[in-house]
Amino acid sequence: MSQAQLLPNVTTPDTSAVSSYERSIGRSRISRTRADRPRVFTLCDREWDLFPEVFAPVYSPSTRVAIEFLDLARPHGPRRGSFLEVGCGTGVVATLAALAGHERVVASDVNLMAVANAAVNAERHGVTGRMRAVHSDLFADLSPDERFDVVFWSSNYVLAPEDFTVETPHEQAYVDPGYRTHRRYLEQAPLRTTATGSALLHFSDRGDVAALHRMADECERELRLLAARRVRETEYGDDIVEHLLYEIVPQSR
Prior knowledge:
This protein has eight helices and twelve strands.
């Protein structure tokens, strides 16, 4: 299990070592190939299947932080409405959303192995009646008129150069060349919510926070900070990383 410790919510400066895309690619390759990579792992007192080539929550705290941001570990009272998890990976967040009571949950990923992984975990936890896993590049393969009360993406927040080419679907979960996917999410996510819904982005200072805000402004979007958590990550060194939860809204709202 990844060793991570929540720290007080105090902003810590970014460093080139923590935000290095080369380092993130290295973390991806180690996580994908290490001999102790499990087929089943435990999170939130539940067991989950982990397929090859899928982002492993056991080696990064980001999934656990996402669960805490969304208050899905031990939700207080049943949830209502619809929930979309973009970049679902193993489908842990989407499955917990369904278990919390969201009536319609969609788990989407551009990685076909992740889609299969999420479907298996939905079946493992008995929520296939409320949750479906779909193969989609962001919103491209969803129905054009489908809207959600919550749209959530725990992003591949490390910025890689515009001309960088990811070699595996697993690397795609770690870096975003030129922030092309982030730009599309900023533009499109608010268009996929219901009238009272929220478009959420889980980011961190492993990414370029200033560049994200500049891009949001270019897309005529406002980033409202809802929560922040500082985490000490010791799986591949000793880093202090600040995780950020933003709501994306049109600037005119």
